[in-house]
Specification:
The protein is 44% helix and 14% strand. It has 13 helices and 11 strands.
């Protein structure tokens, strides 16, 4: 049996016991073999040997990849959603350039939004009134410049970022840490439905996958990877938003931060980012000039 590269990458997230480290190794090997068009058991064995994939994990790959059970799982996913693989021409170049790009993204909505200039917006799940006010002041002008807002559909800053985009008739993309049949938090179900119908929701997790703690840091790398700039609205000292900011820095992306009160625990992270070199955002133009740096006169 042989698989096209697209089929190979669609199947990888469906395999039990196979995680990000292994799928990334598979992608790196395939990217080094540009002549490759299909994957057979023999080619997969060679991949595992070349990439020093442990025997137990290599056995999981070989035992599952070509089975009817995985074909059935793939059919279920494609019945409910689309799938964009790293082998597809529509896969975002910026995301492909990251160290550990998702080999497949299940989606519902309009993939054309990935071609827009994009701004990642992250921050506290329990934002202060100051943070919410700052977002309402800064983001509308950004959205009106046809810049898409990318966030994670979490409560707090993520939710308001998506809502501002909708209110000002701009595009918005949610990257979630569950399968597309789950919504976390459940209170955002109506918002998620709106995005799947008129915007875009992405997940690297197959249909039926519930949330797990490690999914959300993994999700953050996609949010940062899709965008050339990441705006941190408000973040405590050990906030998950700082993980996204650090990923953006590692991928040579712009990190922007809204300055906060010096006596606010929720602003410690953003103020430290600015101290470390992140661009302080005081007005919408500061964001626009970063995102549209190659498009402004």
């Amino acid at each position: 049996m042989q698989l096209t590269l697209r089929d190979f990458f669609m199947r990888l997230p469906l395999l039990s016991g196979i995680g990000l480290k292994t799928t990334t190794a598979c992608w790196h090997w395939v990217s080094q073999h540009t002549e490759l068009t299909n994957v057979t058991p023999a080619i997969l064995t060679q991949l595992c040997q070349d990439m020093a994939i442990p025997d137990k994990r290599a056995a999981l790959l070989l035992d599952q990849l070509f089975t009817a059970a995985v074909t059935a799982r793939l059919t279920t996913n494609l019945t409910h959603s689309g799938c964009l693989t790293i082998a597809d021409a529509a896969y975002p170049v910026a995301l492909k350039e990251t160290y550990a790009p998702p080999v497949a993204l299940f989606f519902r909505g309009d993939l054309r939004l990935l071609q827009r200039p994009l701004l990642a917006v992250v921050g506290s799940r329990n934002p202060s009134a100051y943070a919410l006010h700052a977002m309402r002041l800064l983001l509308p002008r950004v959205v009106q410049q046809h810049i898409g807002i990318v966030s994670g559909l979490a409560q707090g800053v993520d939710t308001l970022a998506h809502q501002v985009a909708l209110a000002y008739r701009g595009p918005t993309i949610a990257v979630i840490g569950t399968g597309l049949d789950h919504c976390y938090p459940a209170a955002n179900r109506d918002l998620m439905d709106e995005l799947t119908q008129n915007h875009l929701v992405l997940s690297e997790y197959p249909w039926g996958t519930s949330g797990a703690r490690h999914h959300f840091p993994e999700r953050n790398r996609i949010i940062a990877g899709l965008s050339n700039s990441t705006l941190v609205v408000e973040a405590a000292h050990h906030s998950g938003s700082l993980i996204t900011a650090n990923i953006a820095l590692q991928e040579n992306r712009n990190v922007l931060a809204i300055p906060g009160r010096v006596d606010s625990p929720n602003s410690v992270g953003t103020n430290e980012l600015i101290l470390a070199g992140a661009k302080p955002i005081l007005q919408p133009e500061h964001i626009i000039e970063e995102v549209l740096v190659d498009k402004l006169p």
